[in-house]
Amino acid sequence: MTNNRIAGIFLSITGSLVVIYSFYNFRIGTLQKIGPGWYPMIVGAFLLCLGILLGISKNKKNYTFSTFPNTKIKSFFLIVLTMPLFAFTVNYFGLILSIFLFVFINSFLWSGQKIKSRITLSLFFTLITVILFSLILNLNINLLPIIF
Questions:
Q1: Of 45, 31, 43, 42, which is closest to residue 132 (Cα–Cα)?
Q2: Would you give the DSSP letter of residue 139?
């Protein structure tokens, strides 16, 4: 059995457990009024599907950690550190500025981009996020900074 199949089985089991746990222990809600169990259930379903796809893949290569010698630790830490930054800033700076900062900081993971393309990318994702959460889902989120 290859590492891909083992990882696929592990992801499928984990995803299934998350879906079952969130279904029986949380209120799922609807798309207009999302309950606390909606997000864990979607993530669990995603893990389940990813595990199935990984398990049935035809890739016969047996990857190990040493197969990826050029792994960029800086990229990993930048993404992991900007998530709490977003969580802490969204209440004070509003959704628009927080999403813009999150995407702009993470755009430095791709080298060779000019500042204009980084700003354009950040503005695009900010616009998509505002349209999705504020206009389509009609969620009550602070779009602009709170002024004391």
A1: 31
A2: -
DSSP 135: I
Alpha carbons 94 and 75: distance in angstroms, whole number: 25
Q: What is the pLDDT of residues 103-141, one digit of tens each?
A: 998 888 777 778 999 999 999 999 998 888 888 888 787
Q: Taking the C-alpha atoms of 106, 49, 13 and 1 in order, what is their torsion angle to the nearest 10 degrees?
A: -100
In terms of Cα–Cα distance, which of 63, 65, 71, 127 is closest to 95?
Answer: 127
Amino acid code (one letter) for 34? I
Q: DSSP character for 59?
A: -
Residue with tokens 């909606």: 38
Predicted TM-score (pTM) of the model is 0.53
Rounded Cα distance, 55 and 110, in Å = 30
Expressed in percent and rounded to 5, the helix, strand and coil fractions of the chain are 70, 0, 30
Whether the Cβ atoms of residue 143 and residue 115 lie closer than 8 Å to each other: no
SS3 at position 34: strand
114 and 122 Cβ atoms separated by less than 8 Å = no
